[in-house]
Amino acid sequence: MSGDGGPKQIPRGGFAAWQSRRLAAHVDANLAGKIAIKDLAASLGISVGHFCRAFKRTFGMPARIWIRQRRIELAQGLMLTTSASLSEIALSCGMSDQSHFTRSFRRIVGEVPSSWRQTRHGAIEERVTELAYPGRR
Question: What is the pTM of this model?
């Protein structure tokens, strides 16, 4: 019986739920620094080859791409909640520099970070104004 809220099925050759959670927690805690695939594999006591195959089966993409996406998600949160410069955000998300960040961001999100931030920042300001002054337009 699938879909009844029971245990999720582990993809054949993939990670168990506890392994997936451990990996996600480790990656999220270390996004600002270098994350080596060999270290992730070692944390589960498996070879790099086995790790890469199991990761792709479990997460649907290679580990390096998944990690890059997690870095971009962190950057998006920082871009919306801080006034830090894009270069500061890039470094705090583990990117080597702002141009690396911009290339990765554009590849994943589809636009450059500065325009993404400006568009969302404007929308947030409009929403705050609407909430503070209902009925004004």
Answer: 0.78
